[in-house]
Amino acid sequence: MDLLESALKHIFGLNEYLYRQKNTNQPIVINTQELINGYLLLTGMSGTGKSYQAQRLLTNAIEQNLEVDIFDVHNELDQSGIRSALYSESTQLGFNLLSVSPDPHSGGVRRRINEIINMLNTTSRQLGSKQETALRNLLNDVYRINGCNDCEPNTWRKKEITGAARNSLIKQGDYQGLRQYYPVMDDLLSFAERKLSSLYLGTNIKAVLVLEEVNYLAKQLNRALQKYSKSNQDAQIEKTEKALEVAKSKVKAEFEVYVDHIESGNEISGVMKYNSKEVLQSVLERLNILNATGIFHPNPPAFGDANGRCHQIKHLSDDEQSMFVFMRLESIFRQCRDSGVKSDIQHIVFVDEAHKFISEDSGNIINIIAKEGRKFGLGLWCASQSPTHFSEDFLTNCGTTILLGLHSSYWDMACRKLRIEPSVLKYIRPQQVAAIKLQLKGSMDSKFQNAIINETTLASVV
Q1: Domains along the chain?
Q2: Taking Cα atoms as reference points, which of 71, 138, 83, 109 lies closest to residue 357?
Q3: pTM above the 0.85 mark?
Q4: Using H for helix, E for strand and C for coil, what is the string for the chain?
Q5: Is 242 a residue whose pLDDT tops 50?
Q6: pLDDT of residue 283
Q7: What pLDDT is stored for residue 457 in this prediction?
Q8: Chain segment 317-366, per-residue pLDDT in tens
Q9: pLDDT tens digits for range 374-388
Q10: Residue 261 · residue 207 · CB < 8 Å
Q11: Residue 2 pLDDT more than 60?
């Protein structure tokens, strides 16, 4: 895109003062070429038309060929021109948590592990220091097994795989083929379970794998004995019994090899770095809970080439919503950053009920985007019931601030934080007159102004 193609122009309303006093229809236009950045805050209590104004803005952005990702907490922003995906335990749509940015300067295994741990720590159940260490070791080992080494950037570029494709390769026994792809949550869970088994048994992973084969054959034999009588199934039962005996011999041999090769006394350090059975068990439980949500399965929605994408997350818990939003924002920001510096906005992320996801933490991805996204063409649009939920840094650096209706109990705080005149607040009328501040380039402190947003009035002039 060139500069003109990537700019956004949106007629928000009419200048209320000129309309009432001068009988003049002067549009108030949101033009990203004129604003200090593409960040926008849309606020209004329930019933003030926040969803309607959000849909107007988003439709306009998509019609002007901007990339748009919507994080819809209420499942009410689905509209024409946008492809939607509903995330829940039943749909099992999600994105691979273990994908790695291949950029040699800003990507890599270590950075991705840090992002995963930071994401988990944004929830109501933060990891303890021992759990964090155990999870970090698990992730490092799984990446290493799949051929991704932190100190070798040339190993960071792999392909994405869907759940069905992964199951097909496993069924074929093509484990070498799996190394072409990034590991997924199932790989992490499987590895963690084996590590936990080895902690309980005090042996190595290979012995645990063979022991799993014994358990499988024993169960198979038991089912056969229960299902069939002494008839024509004797041959099958005898075959399974022989296979079980062979597998048992392998287990014994593996344990003997393990014991015979103990020399330095450090052979179990690869297991002991996970601290204890209890710590690893708690990490595994946490990973199983994550996996149960489905949002980290490698089954991305079929968005195709649509430039408008709506992520409907109403059916996820608060913690699941936070993790999903942070993970996707990390990925989008990474893609924009890796594509280089842009002259104007090219990609918009719209976060509904953004106060649920923002914090004062400088590592919060919304704060990172607010500080760095502009130069990479990324616009951050946040919607909430009140502007008082947001940090002062975000509010003072927001290119566009829109107030659709604010409860009078918030007026004093809004006046202090937004530097808005009480007279401007007084003239706000839900779905009729709003207040908007456009922070223009070259202007030290733009003022709020009232705008007529009545649908009928706008339709007669625009």
Answers
A1: 3-89+307-461 (3.40.50.300), 109-292 (no CATH)
A2: 71
A3: no
A4: CCHHHHCCEEEEEEEHHHHHHCCCCCEEEEECCCECCCCEEEECCCCCCHHHHHHHHHHHHHHCCCEEEEEECCCCCCCCCCEEEECCCCCCCCCCCCCCCCCCCCCCHHHHHHHHHHHHCCCCCCCCHHHHHHHHHHHHHHHHHCCCCCCCHHHCCCECCCHHHHHHHHHHCCHHHHCCECCCHHHHHHHHHHHHHHHHHCCCHHHHHHHHHHHHHHHHHHHHHHHCCCCCCHHHHHHHHHHHHHHHHHHHHHHHHHHHCCCCCCCCHHHHCCCCHHHHHHHHHHHHHHHHHCCCCCCCCCCCCCCEEEEECCCCCHHHHHHHHHHHHHHHHHHHHHCCCCCCCCEEEEECCHHHCCCCCCCCHHHHHHHHHHHHCEEEEEEECCHHHCCHHHHHCCCEEEECCCCHHHHHHHHHHHCCCHHHHHCCECCCEEEEEECECCCCCCCCEEEECCHHHHHHHC
A5: yes
A6: 93
A7: 75
A8: 999 999 999 999 999 999 999 889 998 899 999 999 999 998 888 888 99
A9: 999 999 999 998 887
A10: no
A11: no
